[in-house]
From TrEMBL:
InterPro entries: Glutathione-S-Trfase_C-like, Glutathione-S-Trfase_C_sf, Glutathione_S-Trfase, Glutathione_S-Trfase_N, GST_C, Thioredoxin-like_sf. Gene3D superfamilies: 1.20.1050.10, Glutaredoxin. CDD domains: GST_N_GTT1_like. It comes from the Eukaryota. Residues 68-214 form the GST C-terminal domain. Pfam families: GST_C, GST_N. Residues 1-87 form the GST N-terminal domain. This is Glutathione S-transferase. The lineage of its organism: Eukaryota, Fungi, Dikarya, Ascomycota, Pezizomycotina. Belongs to the GST superfamily.
Length: 214
């Protein structure tokens, strides 16, 4: 069973990197071969990458036994099902599994949409192809308000809980945490979401993630 993971530091593929870090910590050995790509140099836009790995030209992507799998949410759920259940890092089939999937997809669709608008409208957007960046103050305000609304939902869901699914940590925490770290890099105001701050601290204290961030 061979997995190749296509990664670029400080990009969306940090989600997958964190998921692998948790799994590999429990597994006690690498689960994949990491290939580091440079987005600036266009490594994800080569004919070979587009043909064999990800036609969208994005990281993260994994190729497992010759099968390309892309989209960080799909990868998190796939790795959770394939390896995570065994290490109590992903729920068994059933409503808890559905809950984990809900948070993973929510981060990718809802948080990322507003986060990307915030990044672009504030001019923090990356200079990659197709990114315009720098829009007006009204766009910044709208994106900021949307993020506040979504992060408050996360805060409410964490009320009285250690982790997203309750007492048990799961890869849904890992995945959503990487999106919240992106929020802190963008200096999104977290002063009023104490549950999120506490949870970020607990997740960041996980040995696997501490090691990853060293
Ligand atoms: N929805 C995708 C987003 C992936 C994505 O946008 N990746 C960016 C980096 S953050 C990328 O690879 N960009 C390279 C490029 O556009 O050339 C996912 O979650 O996997």
């Amino acid at each position: 069973m061979a997995i190749t993971f296509y990664h670029s530091p400080n990009s969306t593929s940090e989600c997958t990197n964190a998921v692998f870090a948790e799994l590999e910590y429990s597994h006690g050995a690498p689960l994949c071969e990491r290939v580091n790509l440079s987005l600036e140099k266009g490594d994800t836009r080569t004919p070979s990458y587009l043909k064999n790995v990800n036609p969208s030209g994005h990281v993260p992507a994994i190729v497992h036994d010759g099968v390309p799998i892309w989209e960080s949410s799909a990868i998190a759920m796939y790795l959770g099902e394939t390896f995570g259940e065994k290490y109590q890092l992903y729920p068994a089939l059933g409503p808890r599994r559905g809950e984990a999937m809900k948070w993973i997809i929510w981060a990718n669709i809802t948080i990322a949409e507003a986060g990307t608008r915030f990044m672009d409208s504030t001019g923090m957007g990356s200079p990659l192809p197709g990114r315009e960046g720098g829009k007006g103050p009204a766009d910044v305000e709208r994106a900021k308000n949307d993020l506040k609304k979504w992060i408050e939902i996360l805060d409410g869901a964490l009320e009285g809980k250690e982790f997203l699914l309750g007492e048990e940590y799961s890869l849904a925490d890992t995945h959503v945490w990487t999106f919240m770290r992106w929020m802190t890099f963008m200096k999104v105001d977290m002063s009023e979401v104490g549950n999120v701050r506490g949870w970020m601290g607990r997740v960041g204290e996980r040995p696997a993630l501490k090691k990853l961030l060293q």
